[in-house]
Amino acid sequence: MNQKTLLGHPIGLFVLFFTEMWERFSFYGMRALLVLYLTQHLIQTAQTGDTVIGFKALQAGLEFVFGPMSIQPLASQIYGLYTGFVYFTPIFGGMLADRVWGQRKTVVIGAVLMALGHFLMASEAFFLVALLLLILGSGCFKPNISTQVGSLYPPGDPRRDGAFTIFYMGINLGAFFAPLVCGTLGQRYGWHYGFGAAGVGMLFGLLVYLGGQRYLAEDQFTIKANQPLEEEVPLTAKEWQSIGGLVVLAALNIVFWAVYEQQGNTLQLFADQNTDWHVFGWEMPSTWFQSFNPAFIFLLAPLLDRRSARLASQGKQRSSVGKMAFGAGLLGASFLVLIVAVSGIESTEKISFLWLVLCTLIYTIGELYLSPIGLSLVTKVSPPRLVGMMMGMWFLATFFGNYLSGYIGTYYEKMPKDSFFLLLAILGVGTGLLIFAFKAPLKKAVDD
Q: For the chain, what is the mean pLDDT?
């Protein structure tokens, strides 16, 4: 591996940064439009004819389990299933990389599948086929791009947490521009222009990754293939303890993601239907709401990273488990802002978009205390030969959280807005309290 550095980190980190940036551009561009596309166009079209392959069977299956659904709850269920399965398949993508293809080849296959999926979104008939390709592609791509960040650093390297924070900013650079580009194209010029732009972004990501191969670390699969075959050593008691700690943490994070993912689901609907987006007489597209979160990450991540380094140098650094408990609590607290905003107003009245800005600011700080810390923790404490599978397991918890976000979203039309936001607040704060309650044994398990 080429050991050239930039800003104190290997060049490979920035190859992965820009690859992930474009992949996230494609994902968040599609996510910015998905619920609006479903509620304002696709579901009505699919219900009036057989224009969307497999849609009536999907609707029948959901209604068999949950009962008859109007357009919004049905859209929420589809959103939850899609975003959930995006995080379910990575456990298999991690296993494929660890045992069959290696991380690099698996990432390339995933990128190709996702590009095809985004371009197929241009056809209403192939909507569900496109979602399936995006799900499979993400499963190959997601766990193996993240584990390659950790592979750039030797065990115990203090730069690792900072590297994941930088990588996380790459995620959010793509997430920031995606609603501005794809959202605007989709809302102002036609849904398929927005989805097509997401596909172009994925192709750019693939080109960056292929062009930067020489700067990346050799993956575990390749290293093992070049070594003499050895009898696989059983996991040690400490390794089993670390795995157990990660599994418990992942389970506790399920509700965090169920609440957090409302920003692409019910919060996007709230932004579109109940929020005033006029600035000096000009109206912003409502999908721009989804750019607030990544914008705040750019502003806040370097500040929190410097604060963390300063506390570490003083021996006052909070544990990873403590940070994650604090982050979940902040997520829940952010919805108190919207409860205040909607209290005492008529259901047809619109609130200023600045209320959403403040809510987003608070839950973004919470996210920064949980998500990048969790990714770094997985690569630090997982047994090296299982790191891909463990990263997939971490994303598996996000699968349950994202599906739960769709189920929770079915209550959006059934409850008063302030009651719905109170539900989200209770779920978020409750998750933070649970993580904090298990802090001592979890901290011991992950040796953090």
A: 86
- Enumerate the β-bridge partners of residue 351: 275
Domains of the chain: 5-220+237-445 (1.20.1250.20)
Q: How far apart are CA 426 and CA 216, in angstroms?
A: 43
The predicted model scores a pTM of 0.85
> Would you say 94 and 117 are in contact if contact means Cβ atoms under 8 Å apart?
no
The dihedrals phi and psi of 6, each to the nearest 5 degrees, come to -145, 125
Give the confidence band of 230 by pLDDT, cuts at 50, 70, 90. low
**Each residue's pLDDT tens digit, 291-328:** 999 999 888 877 887 887 777 777 766 777 888 889 99
- Number of helices (H), then strands (E), belonging to the chain: the values are 21, 6
- The residue ranking higher by pLDDT, 274 or 381, is 274
Sign of CA dihedral 195, 197, 201, 207: positive
Nearest-CA neighbor of 31 among 420, 425, 335, 405? 405
Distances (CA, A) of 113 to 56, 134, 137: 25, 7, 5
Contact 297/172 with Cβ under 8 angstroms? yes
